[in-house]
Design goal:
- The chain is mainly beta.
- Strand 4 and strand 5 form a beta hairpin.
- 15% of the residues are buried.
- It is globular and about 25 Å long.
């Protein structure tokens, strides 16, 4: 998925799952199964329950995505 193709949503982490996955509820009310993007892993940015995050979603499968930013 290239950067031009991805769609970004703001959301809240509602559930922490095994294997580094998170369930995120977007502002539009959609539930997205997301994992942490590589840059966030590299810089060891932690994501916990209740965090505001930005999720990048593919237009082909809007139920899965990557957490690309944790909003302060």
């Amino acid at each position: 998925m290239s950067r031009e193709d991805q769609i970004e949503f703001q959301g809240v982490v509602t559930e922490v799952l095994a294997g580094g996955f998170f369930r995120v509820e977007t502002e539009a009310g959609h539930m997205v199964l997301a994992h942490i993007a590589g840059k966030m892993r590299r810089f060891r940015i932690r994501v916990v329950l209740g965090d505001q995050v930005t999720v990048a979603v593919s237009p082909y499968d809007p139920t899965r995505g990557r957490i690309i930013q944790r909003v302060r």
